[in-house]
Amino acid sequence: MLLAEDDRAIRHALERALTLEGYEVTAVADGVEALAQAHKTPPDVLVLDVMMPGIDGLQVCRVLRAEGDRTPILMLTALVETADRIAGLDAGADDYVVKPFDVEEVFARLRALLRRTSPVPAGGGNGGAGVEAGGRDAQLPDRQVEAAGIRMDLQARRAWRGKRELELTRTEFELLELLVRNAGIVLDHSTIYDRIWGYDFGPGSKNLAVYVGYLRRKLDEPGAPQLIHTVRGVGYVLRED
Asked: Does residue 133 belong to any structural domain of this protein?
């Protein structure tokens, strides 16, 4: 694991906590060191502070994604506005934790990221991310799911709306797959959190709303029906109006 955090106290505390949790941690103090270390010894996961001198966490994220590096990235940020979190997702981050954070939340999010990137046993589909879809994709190859004009190749981790390919982060892909597999079924917040993050962050968390909003921006097209619908007080459903 590569940890980049310019605040010395936070860096040392988090490095120690992660080491005690069983992670092998390389800790650096800025974005320049983070990029150099990532190129030298590619990590299994990156934890990047957003606000760092010189090259910040968002720039590190953008550089790695532009190079085709798909290593899961967890962002640490003191910025709480939705627009700030969306900026992190736009840069290619997979998840984020807002400071001040509980270290157990960091552990939970890291476990979820690493679980989604672990090799899938033969015949295991894509980790059983779907709840049930009523056999909607029973006629498609095991590696593909399709509903509401969305087609997904699970093995290649590619997705299309019609003929347009969607550029999705790992978390966005997992969320879209869950919705496609359960097209027409309203999924409640707790179910989605459990399936995608492996942890329910509670009613006060805006994490899911941020990801749904960003996924909508990538899916929606002028003149085309909206596909992801909010069922107020319950959750979300994928369907064509």
From this structure: no
